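Final report, results section. Input specification for complex C-07:
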Amino acid sequence: MKLLPITLIAIGAAALPGWAFAATDGDPQKGKEAAVVCVACHQADGTGKNNPNGESWPQLAGLDAAYLAKQLSDYKSGQRENATMKPFANMLSEQQVADVAAYYSQLTPSQGQGGENADEATLARGEMLAQRGDWADYIVSCKSCHGPGNQGAGEAFPGIAGQHAGYIEAQLKAWQAGTRKNDPQDLMGTIARRMSDEDIRAVAAWLSTQPPQSN
Amino acid sequence: MKPTFAITALAGSLLLAGGVAANERTEDYLNTLTELGYPAPKENQLVHIPPTMQDLEASDMHPELKRVIRRGYDLFTDTQQLRGENVFNNMNCSSCHLGEGRMPFSAPVWPAAVTLPNFRGKNGHVNNLEERIAGCFTYSMNGKPPEYGSDNMLALAAYHQWLAKGVEMYPEKPIYGRGFPAPERPEELSYANGEKLYQEQCAVCHSENGEGLQVDGKTVFPAPWGDGSNNWGAGIVRVFTAAGFIKNNMPLGQPLSLSDQEAWDIAYYISNQERPQDPRYTGDVKETLEKYGPTFHKHSLYGQASEATGETLGDHDNTGEKDFLKPDTVRPRTFE
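Structure output:
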């Protein structure tokens, strides 16, 4: 009985439809070579960098490979718009997208930056939004989709615990403004539009202080 | 940019509860809900928005009571900690009762604390709050309730009662946002359309095959059918209850975004799938249907041919993950 889940995973993996594998069928070794164009911003270890006064570079280490591959594909197709990323994504072939995604998914994430100086009240508000939500404004909690510990759930909901605060803040604002809309069914956009600037700052700060974990 | 909701005829919960004044809280929620498209309360309705966990911490209740209510909250939102003991599927209480059991139109749980003990048609006798909670464990969690009077049962009951803070017992007014109000049933229900909509709108979270998603053994997205889901005796197997849940609560964060027809079609699609046996099963699906049809299964598809497989729904001995059919708390009471 205890062995059943493992058996199911094995059978499930073998029976997955082709499209589900397409994104994860990357070679991490080849990905490492292709990722030479990424390291200037995302760093050799994939930890990225929080830039308080400019564009923060997200931590990629440990993120789900299929999620990463989708983001790169979306930059290429224009479904996700970012002036910095577009030229770099365009340098990658479809295979290289899968390889780079596989490479970063295997790296060990480090602690995010940007929440260190947040005051207690801000962190408490951030924790509430992330863990319980604020139903007075119909803001559902982050963890209800991003999973236990906000460490990611499947390929559609990336880990956000331990991500840099500057990046989380910028993304939530992009969803609010409608400049990012490559989420399934506008699930993230709907919630982001209900959040105040203070909410966004608070949740970004708190999440950045939480332990990241590869998924 | 919220319009201010005129808060005139709200009775029952205008008391100060901890840190936040209950009437301010009520006004905030009603503004949000009406903006989302939920109906405003009618003049004669009892409106109650329960206190939050922050209000609990800010209150001057006995520290031991706070601890027990916190325990109840923790069990309610992470019922999976009782997996294998009381819970034998992937559900948490909060999987269906959104917003920690506090939200109108998401079967808020506090009404149970002020309307029970009362006669319950489902089991034909007078139930108190503990027996009502036991029903959820028996059917929705496909499990075995914590013992009456046990620490866990008491903590869960305490959480329910504290959520009802300030509401009179046995209120005479109808309760605003109680249950999962079902949209009007359309003339025809379409399995094919329900399947299409499910795959487009629900599968990203609940998966194409209805198994939902667990991460590290914790439920992120509950299973709408199959062994990880509620059994055939749970309230939500009634198609109107499922339609009401979906219409008012799904997709998460986007309530009331589906049309009435869409909500019913998705409910109908899900209702055509298999799940663990009704604990009241007599050993024969037809006999069970005859016995519980009039009070319950006339609203479900139990005992009917599945549009998915053609086989009779519920015609099996599968009890899911548990190795028993019926917990011994499912028994008649005569009070004699």
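Chain A is about 50% helix and 0% strand. Chain A touches chain B at residues 128, 132-133, 135-138, 140, 144-145, 147-148, 151-154, 156-157, 184-187, 190-191, 215 (CB under 8 Å). This concludes the modelling results for the funded period.
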